[in-house]
Design goal:
five-stranded parallel beta sheet; 12 strands; about 40% helix
Length: about 400
């Protein structure tokens, strides 16, 4: 039985692929065209190549096996084609499933981007950037993450070490576990690194507070075939949909032992296989884990083996009064700049000073402080935008 090579592609390169196919006087067609009789399929004269797209067959992965007969029909048509070359193409996230379903007709998986000469979009990561870019990323963290100066110095030192030993293959993943109360900047580190490295990509964020402990590993990497319920894993899916090389994992203390064992292996090897047999490499990734539990309780929850895999385990300290005041000034200036750019209005220096006039001492959760800042800005800008709107009395916002 003759076999063919299938071609996988990153769907984020789809636009470039379509352009390359059009330029070579070729066509991308849907597999559904083969629902009609094969001898009735025709293409414009001069067509050089036909690329048969079958990704939609796997949109419902539970029903993918029902497509085997269609795939076999398409492969037979490709083998018999004489007027032009034909290729079977599929999104990269489904290529392993394709090979598993019709292993007897697929001899291998190759890159469609390479076949077409399309430049691949390489994820920007902390390893391959220049020293100047590295300094810029760390400056972003230094200038926008308030407080915890000793932690920021340690972060630079450990990332420099990571840049050296990742190249040797001995340190695939960089990981940080941050502990402390809510609203003191634990997740902000991940957001800053993500925005510095991949600002146009979706952020990869998982929250174990949303998982049931009994089913956490299945929620993370998918459930085995035949399992009742969804077989898609959140980590697998989000890695497929984003080029970001920063992963935020919130409320890690709420995971269970199978999940801890999963990350024990992932932080060691830098790769994993999901429930559908798809391989994922996290080489050169940064993983930021957060936990709301006290630093002193970490040993009660995480095994010595897992703790030893983290590059940094750190308690994030609340901001001092001076740091909170600096944060208020920075945040207000940034929010006002954003607002003025979008709504084309401006505020006087007096109004800005009034917005910043906050007693920061009672605030330990920066989210609540952010909410108050936004309310103060809204109180100043709303009457400008909507001068005829009814106004409540100007009673100050108080802390609950």
């Amino acid at each position: 039985m003759k076999r063919i090579i299938a071609y996988e592609y990153d769907k984020r390169n789809r636009e470039a692929i379509v352009s390359a196919v059009t330029e070579e006087n070729s066509q991308i067609i849907s597999w559904s065209l083969f629902a009609q009789e094969s001898d009735r399929i025709s293409f414009p004269p001069g067509t050089k190549c036909i690329y048969v797209e079958i990704s939609s067959m796997f949109a419902n992965e539970d029903r993918a096996e029902l497509s085997i007969a269609f795939i076999e029909k398409i492969i037979s048509f490709i083998i018999k084609a004489t007027k032009f070359k034909m290729y079977l193409i599929v999104e990269r996230q489904y290529s392993q499933m394709l090979k598993n379903l019709v292993y007897y007709r697929i001899s291998g998986i190759s890159s469609l981007e390479t076949l077409l000469g399309v430049e691949k979009c390489v994820p920007r990561n902390i390893i391959d950037i220049s020293q100047e870019e590295f300094d810029s990323v760390l400056a972003t963290v230094r200038d926008n993450l308030f407080g915890n100066d000793d932690f920021k110095e340690l972060l630079r030192s450990e990332l420099e070490k990571f840049r050296i030993f990742n190249v040797t293959g001995t340190h695939p993943v960089f990981s940080v576990l941050l502990c402390g109360n809510a609203g003191i900047g634990k997740t902000e580190l991940a957001r800053l690194l993500h925005r510095a490295l991949a600002p146009d990509e979706p952020m990869i964020k998982l929250n174990f507070g949303n998982y049931s402990s009994d089913n956490a590993l299945n929620s993370l990497i998918g459930s085995p075939r035949g399992y009742i319920g969804s077989n898609k894993g959140e980590l697998s899916e989000k890695l497929s949909l984003s080029r970001s090389t920063v992963v935020l994992i919130d409320e890690f203390e709420k995971a269970n032992k199978p999940v801890y064992n999963f990350f024990l292996q992932l932080l060691e090897d830098g790769q994993f296989t999901d429930s559908l047999g798809r391989d994922y490499s996290l080489d050169k990734y940064i993983l930021i884990f957060t936990s709301n539990i006290d630093y002193d309780r970490i040993e009660e929850i995480l095994s010595p083996e897992l703790r030893s895999r983290f590059d940094i385990i750190r308690k994030m300290m609340p901001l001092s009064t001076d740091e909170k005041q600096a944060y208020v000034s920075y945040k207000v200036d940034r929010l006002i700049d954003m607002m003025q750019e979008e709504v084309r209005t401006s505020l006087s220096e007096e109004a800005i000073a009034h917005i910043k006039d906050i007693d920061v001492i009672p605030y330990t959760d920066m989210r609540k402080l952010n909410s108050l800042l936004m309310q103060n800005i809204a109180d100043e800008i709303y009457p400008i935008l909507y001068p005829n709107s009814p106004r409540e009395d100007d009673s100050p916002v108080t802390i609950e």
